[in-house]
Amino acid sequence: MGDDGHGYCRTFGAGVPRNLVYPKESNISQSTDDLVQKITEQVRQEFQLQLQQLHA
């Protein structure tokens, strides 16, 4: 935590505000939800394909 109360991380020896390095929390949550939905759909499609191949 910086003296001004903001979160900082060290990058190449300089203090860089965390919000310049990491996206805002709401974006992280949205990106995670989108990723989970995409992966879930891919797993569902692969599972259905495997079931079809077993029944063929």
Features:
alpha+beta; 62% helix; 2 helices; two-stranded antiparallel sheet; 56 residues; rod-shaped
Written overview of the protein:
With 56 residues, the chain is α+β, with helices and mostly antiparallel strands. The protein has a domain at 24-56. Helices cover 62% and strands 14% of the residues. It has two helices and two strands; from the N terminus they run E-E-H-H. It has helices at residues 18-21, 25-55; strands at 8-11, 14-17. A two-stranded antiparallel sheet has the order 1-2. A hairpin with a 2-residue loop joins strand 1 (8-11) and strand 2. The longest helix is centred in the last third of the chain and has 31 residues, at 25-55. The chain starts with 7 loop residues before the first strand and ends with a helix.
What's the main sheet like?
2 strands, antiparallel
- Global geometry: rod-shaped
Specify the helix fraction band: 55-70%
SSE order, one letter for each helix or strand? EEHH
Please state the oligomeric state of the protein chains shown: single chain
Distance between the termini: 60 Å
Radius of gyration based on Cα positions:
21 Å
Topology (SSEs and partners):
Blueprint: E1 8-11, E2 14-17, H1 18-21, H2 25-55
Antiparallel strand pairs: 1-2
Write a concise synopsis of the structure shown.
By secondary structure, the protein is of the alpha+beta class. Helices cover 62% and strands 14% of the residues.
